[in-house]
Amino acid sequence: MLPALISMILLGAVLLAAPAQAQDRRAVSEPSLPVQLCATLSPSPASAEGRWPEETQRLQSAINHCPSGGAVRLVADAQGGRFLSGPLTMKSGVTLWIDRGAILSAVPDPRAYDTGARLCGSVAAKGSGCLPFISFKGTTGGGIVGDGEIDGQGGAVMVGHDETWWQIARRADREGGKQNNPRLIQADHARDLTFYRITLRNAANFHVMLDEVEGATFWGVKIDTPADARNTDGIDPSASQDITIVHSYIRAGDDNIAIKAGKGATRHVSILDDHFYWGHGLSIGSETNAGVSDILVSAVTLDGTASGLRIKSDVSRGGLVTRVRYEDVCLRDNQKPIDFDTRYDASAWGLSIPVYEAISLHDVTGADGTLILRGHDGDHPLTVQFDGVRFGQGATWQVENVELSAGPGGVSPTPPGLTLTPAAGPPPDCGGRWAPFPE
Description:
Largest sheet: 23 strands, parallel
Number of helices: 4
CATH architecture: 3 Solenoid
CATH superfamily: Single-stranded right-handed beta-helix, Pectin lyase-like
Distance between the termini: 50 Å
Helix content: under 10%
Number of strands: 36
Strand content: 35-45%
């Protein structure tokens, strides 16, 4: 017997194109490195000797005294390129330029990030005990650029402890509490941020969190953290709009990208020509209660992510996810290449029903794995359109409470109950699309 309430519709004409608004509404072009420098700094003896409060004060002072439109440039010298610092707060219009060979390292001392409750570096009932390493609070313009690195030192043993940040996260998972680890970069109520060519490594928690941000560009960014580093999401836009992530490479210990909508709607996001490796996938959710819409994912590869294209929520945090278009996507070595699930936590309770509608996949190619399409119920089905979607013959479908439609490119293997004439011609060739992570 077929899963309950499956409605299949074959479209005789081409699949409708994505609405024009289903992407970042800004005209985004490649950023450039700053031309106006207000300070050029090399590591001080304080950094080399571990007197991080002094180095933090020096870096923060340079940022504070830099006028809008200027940049603070960190460079390596004959003694090295490592700057050891505590939390830094960015200023409107100021860019932090980390040059090739320079590494801005987050000091692994929980006291540096503690918000006053003495929870940072612990497992507790709440998980908000740490300041982020780099903060953008209410800023306009500026960002972080350069061919250097920011190292969160998530794998370093914390000062005064016998655990690393990542071990704290794993212990929280075992004990059922909340980890109190600092995020690497957090932007709150900010506008027009730029992240260009920078490498982010070893975050203790999320690498980049955007909360109520209007306009942010990630271009040529690399994020690199071990696969077993729990809760180290790559880039998480939340309650934000007009975000572009392009020409970037992400491997992380959790979601490569997670588009969230807990406190406010997230919409108009473009994810273009990116490469994802280990991690939990290119995700929407799990907080979708305020609504996610107008998302374009185009010309990306997902090489070894656990889930591939993923939408996840449940009745404790569900909302409307609509106008999401995936096109020209290549997947391989994924346990769940497609994972659209309205019952992410089967034990969750609440009245916030997840609704996924107007989801389209065009020229999506993958291998074997489990393909999940799970709507909430017959009154709230998941609606998906396919055109030129091909997976290996060993791929299996799990389909429940859905309305499926297909254009002339079809879908293979055919979901249960949908009758299609096989599409003519070979599937798109992904052979030249795969790219190794740039070491």
